[in-house]
Design brief:
It is built from 9 helices and 10 strands. The chain is an alpha/beta fold. The protein has one domain: TIM Barrel (Alpha-Beta Barrel), CATH 3.20.20. The strands form 3 sheets. Strands 1, 2, 3, 6, 7 and 8 form a 6-stranded parallel beta sheet that branches. It has a two-stranded parallel ribbon with strand order 4-5. Strands 9-10 form a two-stranded antiparallel ribbon. Strand 6, helix 8 and strand 7 form a beta-alpha-beta unit. The longest helix is centred in the middle third of the chain and has 17 residues. The termini are far apart. It binds zinc ion (ZN). The site of zinc ion (ZN) has 5 residues, from loops.
């Protein structure tokens, strides 16, 4: 920086300090921080007794996520399904009992998906539009049944490995690999994923990424609609 530009910069700073210059960034509310892209945070296998702490952590860090609930737990913890929605989360279908769907008959697959639609809706979670097959295992029959119920199948781009004993550091590092539009797999029951949430939020903010919804049309993370 040469002397002339240094003086010009000092002038701008002093004008801003005196309140004679409107600094656009500083005038914008914190909530309106620019989002250069959106990522989809997902938590599978809830709801459960862990759900309240997870929702609190997400809310406190300004994050929204998609919760792929098991129907059996939506039926057992209906208040937590409602709490997910009230906390600004999106609720998806993750089958009723979490079987390996590719090893099931079409009628069992249909029952697993349809009962979960009913359980989530009955709990106040709305009728899901997104479906994640257990273990990410799918085939043409699973996809056809999901489509019958108006569901878009969502797998993931980044696996946090929280289900496989990943440390909090490793989960934070996994989230750091997300790029715009991508989706990360985490779990409602993972204490390490819960602990990672503040650092995930900081990391995304530092890269100009925001937590978004998953579009049923494209299966990609997009701005909340
Ligand atoms: Zn699962």
């Amino acid at each position: 920086m040469n002397l002339r530009s240094r003086i010009a910069r000092l002038a701008v700073v002093s004008m801003a300090a005196a309140g004679t210059l409107t600094v656009v960034d500083a005038a914008a509310p914190a909530q309106a921080a620019a989002c250069n892209g959106y990522v989809g945070l997902t938590f599978d296998d809830g709801p459960s007794g862990n759900t309240p702490a997870l929702l609190n952590a997400l809310k406190q860090n300004g994050l929204r996520a998609t919760m792929f609930n098991q129907g059996q737990y939506a039926a057992a913890y209906p208040a937590q399904v409602k709490a997910q929605v009230d906390a600004g989360m999106w609720v998806g279908n993750h089958s009723y009992t979490h079987p390996h769907l590719t090893q099931q008959s079409q009628s069992v697959i249909d029952s697993e998906i349809s009962r979960t639609q009913q359980a989530v809706a009955g709990a106040g979670g709305g009728t899901p539009k997104l479906f994640r097959p257990p273990y990410g295992e799918t085939n043409s029959t699973v996809q056809a049944v999901a489509a019958k119920y108006g569901l878009t199948q969502i797998i993931w781009d980044v696996d946090s490995q929280d289900w496989n004993g990943a440390s909090t550091d490793a989960i934070v590092a996994a989230a750091a690999r997300l790029t715009g539009g991508q989706i990360i797999l985490m779990h409602d029951w993972s204490a390490n994923s819960l602990a990672a949430i503040p650092r995930i939020a900081q990391g995304l903010a530092g890269r100009g990424l925001c937590a978004g919804m998953i579009s049923p049309q494209t299966g990609r993370a997009v701005a909340p609609g």
